Amino acid sequence: MAQRTMRWRVSLCVSVLCLTAVLGQVSYSIPEEMAKGSLVGNIAQDLGLDVKRLRSGKARLHTGNNAEYIELDRERGALLVRERIDREALCAQTMPCALHFQIILENPIEFYRVTIEITDVNDNAPFFQKDSMKFDISESATVGSKFVLERAFDSDIGVNGLQSYSFHPTDNFVLKLQGDRDGSKKVEMVLEKPLDREQKEQISLLLTAADGGEPRMSGTVQIHVTVLDANDNAPLFTKPIYKTSIVENSQRGTVLTTVKASDVDVDLNGLVKYSISSSTVGVKDHFDIDEDNGEVRLIGDLDYEKTRHYEIDIEARDQGGLSDSSKLMVEIIDVNDNKPHIDLMSTSSSISEDSSYETVVAVMSVNDPDSENNGVVKCSISEHIPFAIQSTANGFYSLVTDSDLDRERAAEYNISITCCDEGVPSLSSSVTLTLHISDVNDNAPVFERSSYEAYIVENNTPGLSIFTVKATDADWNQNARVSYILEDSSVNGVPVSSYVSVSADSGVIHAVRSFDYEHIKDFHLCVKAQDGGSPPLSSNVTVKIMIQDQNDNAPQVLYPVQTSSSLVAEMVPPSADVGYLVTKVVAVDVDSGQNAWLSYKLQKATDRALFEVGLQNGEIRTIRQVTDKDAVKQRLTVVVEDNGQPSRSATVNVNVAVADSFPEVLSEFTDFTHDKEYNDNLTFYLVLALAVVSFLFITCLVVIISVKIYRWRQSRILYHSSLPVIPYYPPRYSDTLGTGTLQHVYNYEVCRTTDSRKSDCKFGRAGSQNVLIMEPSCTGTMQRIQNEKNILDEPDSPVEVS
Ligand SMILES: *[C@@H]1O[C@H](CO)[C@@H](O)[C@H](O)[C@H]1NC(C)=O
Ligand SMILES: *[C@@H]1O[C@H](CO)[C@@H](O)[C@H](O)[C@H]1NC(C)=O
User: Fold this and answer.
1) Which ligand 2 atom is at minimum distance from the Cα of 489?
2) Which residue, by CA, sits nearest to atom 2 of ligand 1?
3) Which of 177, 202, 180 lies closest to 190, judged by CA?
4) What is the distance, to the nearest Å, from the Cα of residue 370 to the centroid of all Cα atoms in its chain?
5) Of 251, 496, 546, 653, which is most buried, counting CB atoms within 10 Å of its CB?
């Protein structure tokens, strides 16, 4: 104990009191906490009393109610510490602290006052009533804020009492004492440096109170400061700019990214809510942010072709109202969702087949709004057509011809243009344009055969169609309209057009005249087929017309010559043998073939049993022995027949005389003189003819004279007036010339007009007779008409063909 080493001091104070009973007063001063039995003072000596007196007087201490801390040792006459004295318990803070008691003696009664002052010993450390102190201080507390601390207590007094405080650490706070120096009044903690909860949430401080004793004693208390949050921190985004990308056409609800802002504050001050602050048009229609967790979601449809990126301004705000902003850059990734778009800017609906190489047929623009490969377009057209597609400029294409066109091969093309992009999978679109190839006259008409042969039976009616040639032209319309033209040539020196005509439209070859096989057997003609193009193209073909024979000629007997006289006769000697060749009938037939194949037959004979005629050779031979009984005058009629169908025949009379010499025969034959009546008839006819001719002559003479007189009078009138000439129709024309000749002319006219107009043979119209009639000679008129009739019959005479 500190008290053991304590220096104590006894102060003796003797004071003589005036009281009768009180003989004296003694004061001592001892430190507290002295050990039991320690000497306080030699009271006997100090009071001047003998130890014996103490014993005899039965000296004792009188303390009243006070505890007996002190005892009296009568033997030694000393005051001793009976019990440990604690000044603090005895006097607390009262100063000075003293024990007051009396020493009472008997025999005589005497008493003495004793005062023992207890002096303080530093036996108490300062102490705090609480183990710890707790403070909740907002971090926003301003510098200079004061916080009252609990004071410490020290039971000791004076120097041994509480002397000072110390405080540790002093990072944020300093200690400030107010009032008494010993700090008994007020201990305060002053904020010197602002608090930051985010830095240090709990601060532990140690407050130490120390006294001034020797050795110094101290007491401590823990101060716990909890720094309360203040919304002094704004939320902070983890990045100033966020970047993300999303494919277009993504589903709604897709999370693009999650933004994060942190707020070091706690509770509401640190509760961050996210929002889109962007006012850019469209952003809020497309994106939404979860206000709690910062997930940015798609709520609209994205189309790369409309917007390729978005900038979203986002804001994070804590509940204290502090905020931070950031930006989210959203790149839209293209998806191949657009077909190439083909725009035909200009097209030709038709193109000439002779168009040159690389003629532009169509121009188009192709675009694909997708990006990169999704927007790279390639165009192609169907294969095996004479067109190609060329890329002219970026996105522009032209369709050109790349080889020769031929309308006759293909008159129309359906050109299908397909454009596809290079996306995966690739999208494509196509258009089809129909191109007509217009015709150019590049094909000549072609005859079906390289040459033709045609047959016509002679004696045909003029205008008969013989044959039809046909040529086709591969071109179109007017370029394919074929006309047939008879090429000029001559047959036997006569233009071929006088033989045949060709119908320009139909290619029908008509006979212009009646053919005579005996005159011409065949001839060639050349027909040209020409199309209607410009310039026209043509080709020609040779047609061989062969005239077929008809049995139109009867056989002609050359021998024996037929005369009116029957005096010519063949002689057969009476001695002639069987098979004697009497004569040979010689006949010819100008027809040919079967039509000219002659056979001979005996038609009539004086004696049929005597002669025969060779069927083939016309030889007349005897078939039996001629006898004297046979008549001298034999008459045979031989018929010569050709083999035509029907056959034609001629007869010949052969006189045969069975005699040895001619004079013998002559007498027999003279009575052959012909019938007198035949001569009489002849004479009659001659007279009649003479009469008729005379009558006609006179009639004509009268007519001529009448006409002459009429003309003379007419010319006189015309001389004086300007009247038009009125053609004169002889009043008796029809009567005088009523032979049917004029009618004949009309007949031809009608006959011709029924035929093809091209092959029409035009003859002098009946109207032209008006002029002819003016001729004074009626014989001239007849002559003229007769000539026209002859034209048809004579092949060599020219025929007028229009
Ligand atoms: C082209 O198309 C049209 C209509 O589809 C069709 O009538 C015609 O026959 C086609 N032409 C060719 C050459 O394919
Ligand atoms: C017919 O055509 C041939 C060639 O095909 C030509 O040589 C000839 O001259 C033509 N004849 C006539 C009469 O045009």
Assistant:
1) 13
2) 414
3) 177
4) 15
5) 496
pLDDT band at 648 (very low <50, low <70, confident <90, very high): very high
Ligand number nearest CA of 385 is: 1
Nearest Cα residue to 499 out of 518, 524, 470, 469: 524
- Give the distance, in angstroms, between the CA of residue 511 and the centroid of all CA atoms in the same chain: 64
Number of H helices, E strands in the chain: 11, 54
Q: Which ligand is nearest to the CA of 411?
A: 1
| Range with the poorest average pLDDT among 6-15, 156-165, 263-272, 543-552 | 6-15
Pairing of strands 173-178, 186-191: antiparallel
Smallest CA-to-CA distance from 187 within 174, 197, 198, 199 is with 174
Which single residue is written with the structure tokens 């009180």?
Answer: 22
Comparison of pLDDT for 623 and 795, the residue scoring more:
623
CA of 539 to the centre of ligand 2 (A): 7
Mean pLDDT of 651-673: 70
Q: Which two tokens stand for residue 523?
A: 């001839």
Give 260's pLDDT tier (boundaries 50, 70, 90). Answer: very high
Query: Do 446-548 and 232-334 have the same topology in CATH?
Result: yes
Please give the residue that has the higher pLDDT: either 110 or 548. 548
Task: Count how many residues are written for the chain.
Answer: 802
- Tally of CA atoms within 13 A in the half-sphere of 639 that contains its CB: 11
Angle of CA points 247, 248, 254, to nearest 5°: 70
pTM surpassing 0.85?
no
Domain 126-230: CATH superfamily is Cadherins (2.60.40.60)
CB 323 within 8 A of CB 316: yes
Tokens of 415: 């050109």
Counting from 1 in the atom list of ligand 2, the atom nearest the Cα of 487 is 13
Q: Are 25 and 19 in contact (CB under 8 A)?
A: no
Could you please state the CATH topology (level 3) that the domain comprising 22-119 is classified under.
Answer: Immunoglobulin-like (2.60.40)
Mean pLDDT of all residues in 708-727? 65
Report pLDDT digits (tens) over 354-377.
Answer: 999 999 999 999 999 888 889 899
CA distances from 515 to 310, 519, 647 (A): 103, 8, 20
Mapped to the 3 state alphabet, what secondary structure does 134-182 carry? Answer: EEEEECCCCCCCEEEECCEECCCCHHHCEEEEEEECCCCEEEEEECCCC
What is the CATH number assigned to the segment(s) 446-548? 2.60.40.60
Q: What percent of the chain has pLDDT over 70?
A: 82
What pLDDT is attached to residue 670? 54
**CA dist., res. 87 & res. 342, Å (int):** 116
Domain ranges of the chain: 22-119, 126-230, 232-334, 341-438, 446-548, 556-660, 721-793
- According to CATH, the superfamily of the domain at 556-660 is Cadherins (2.60.40.60)
Q: Say if ligand 2 is within 6 A of residue 542 CB.
A: no
Residue 752 has pLDDT above 80, yes or no: no
CA of 761 to the centre of ligand 2 (A): 28
Homologous superfamily of 232-334 in CATH?
A: Cadherins (2.60.40.60)
Q: For residue 421, what pLDDT band results from cuts at 50, 70 and 90?
A: very high
CA-based max dimension of the chain: 271
Q: What is the CA(531)–ligand 2 centre distance, in A?
A: 15
Is the shortest distance between the CB of 625 and ligand 1 below 6 Å? Answer: no
Task: Check pLDDT > 50 for residue 129.
Answer: yes
**Mean pLDDT value across the chain:** 82
CATH architecture observed for domain 341-438: Sandwich (2.60)
Torsion over CA: 712, 716, 717, 721 (sign)? positive
- Residue whose Cα lies nearest atom 10 of ligand 1: it is 414
**CA-based end-to-end distance of the chain:** 177
* Residues 261-294 pLDDT 10s: 998 888 888 899 999 987 678 888 899 999 999 9
